[in-house]
Amino acid sequence: MEKWLDWMVEASGWMFLAIYGVCAVVLGVYAVNCYVMIWLFHRRRREEQERYMRECERFWSEATNADLPVVTTQLPVYNEANVVVRLLQSVVGVEYPREKHQIQVLDDSTDETTEVIAEEVRRYQAAGVWIEHIRRGTREGYKAGALQYGMERAVGEYIAIFDADFVPQRDFLRRLLPTIIVDERGAAVQARWEYLNREESVLTRAQSIGLDAHFAIEQGARAWNGLYMNFNGTAGIWRRAAIEAVGGWQDDTLTEDMDLSYRVQLAGWRMKFVFDVEVPCELPGTVSSYKTQQFRWAKGSLQTARKLLPAILRSRDGWFRKFEAVMHLTHHVIDPLIMILVVCALPALLMARGQVHGVILGVILCGLFVLSISAPAALHGYGQRVLGRRWWHVMPYIPVLSCLYTGLLVSNCKAMYETLRGIQSPFVRTPKEGEGASKRVKYRPVGDRYGWVELGLGVYCTISLGYCLLHGHVILAYFMLLNSVAFVYVGLHSLRVMGVGGATEFTVVGKRAPG
Description:
Layout: H1 2-62, E1 71-77, H2 84-92, E2 101-107, H3 113-126, E3 131-135, H4 142-151, E4 158-161, H5 172-181, E5 186-195, H6 202-223, E6 236-239, H7 240-245, H8 256-266, E7 270-281, H9 287-314, H10 319-329, H11 334-351, H12 354-386, H13 397-407, H14 409-421, E8 441-444, H15 451-470, H16 474-500, E9 507-511
Parallel strand pairs: 1-2, 1-4, 2-3, 5-7
Antiparallel strand pairs: 4-6, 5-6, 8-9
Helix pairs in contact: 1-5, 1-6, 1-11, 1-12, 2-3, 6-12, 6-13, 8-9, 9-10, 9-14, 11-14, 11-15, 13-16, 15-16
C-alpha cells in the first residue's frame, strides 16, 4: 500500500508538471508574439506614415467640393444622456460640406436620452445641418442591428461610426477619408484612440497604457504588413460597398466590428490604419464597467474565432497570416490557461518530489516569469515611446495591469465557457460618465454572481503565497501576491455591486443636478 501511495504521488507530481509545461509553452508563444508585433510595427512605421502624408496631400490638392463623396456618419446610442450632447456637438462641427454629410443618430434608448437627442436634433436641423433622429422601436440585434438599420436608410458611399463617448476632431474626415478613397479595395480605415480621462485614476491610467499598446503597436503592425486587422467599432470609416458585399452587419457575435472586419478581409478587401489621427474618448471609470466591457470583448472575439477560423485556415492565405489571425482571435485562450496555473500551483509544489521535479518546476516558473514580465513590459513600454511619452513611467503600472487582467479571469473564463457551449449573451454596453454639466443621469453598475468565487480564489492564492514564502519559492510568491490582491479586490467589488441590487444591466437610479 505504501509503495502504491508513493507511486500515486510520484505520478501526480509528473502530471502537474506536464500541465504546467503545456500551459507554459502556449503562454510563451503568445508572449513571444508581443516582440513580433513590435518588430512588424517598427519595420514599416516610417514608410507607412510617409505614404499616408503623400496620399492626403495629393488627394486634397486635386479634389474639389464637387468631387467629394457623400459621407454618412452613424452614431449608435443607447441610454447615454451624459455624453450624447457632447457627441452631437463634435460631429456637427466636423469640417465637410454640409450637403454631403448625413448624420444619423441611431437611438435605441429607453431613458431620457431620447428626449435630449430630439431636442438637439431639432436645433441643428433648424440651423441647416443634415441630421436625422432614427428610432427602431426595438433593440433587436443590439448595435449591429442599429447599424444595419441605419445603413439601409443611409445615402453615403462612405460610413463613419462613432460611439457615444467619442469626440472626433474637426478635421477627422479630411484626414482619414483620402486613405480609403485612394485604395479601391480599402474596406475600412481605423483611427487611433486617445483618452479624455487618462489621468483620472490608477484604473484609467492602467487601461490607457494597455490600449495604447494595441493602437500604437498592434494595429499598425497588422495593417501595414498585410495581416488580418480588426475595426474597433468606432472612430473609423467604412466603404459601404465592402459591407454590402459580405452581407452587412451581423449580430451573432458580441463583437460585430471584428466579425465584419474578418469577413471583408476573407473576401479580398483591405483594412487600413492611420497612426497619426487620434480620436479622444472615455475609459470605463469603475471596475464593474471595465469588467463588463472586457467580458463582451473576450466573448465576442472567441465567438468570431469559432465562426470564422475554419474559413481562414481553409483559405489561400500564407501560413504567417493564418498564424497571426489565430493569435489575434484566440488571445483570450490565455485566460483559462492562466487560471489553470493559478489553481495548480500549490498542488504542483506539494506533489513535487526529488531534485528532478524541483529543477523542472523551477525552469518552468523562471521561464514564465521572464516572459510574463518582459513581453508585456516591452510592448507597453514601446507603445508609450512611439507616442512620445516617457516609457519608463509605464513600469510601475505593469503590476497594476497584471492585477487587472488576473482579476477578470473568472469573468473571462465564463466568456470562453459560454462560447464553447453556444450560449448567447445580451449586448451590455458600457455607459460613460461625461463631465461637468453633462452628468444628467447616474447609472447603477452591473452586478454578477461570481464575487464569492473571486474572493475564494483570492483566499486560496493567499494560502499559496504563505506556502511559497515558507519554502523559499520567491518567483511563484510574486505571482501569488499579484493573484491574491487581484482576486480579493475584484471579488469584494463584485459583492459590493451585488449588494446594490444585483443588476444585470446598467440602469438609471436617479438624475443629477447640473454643474
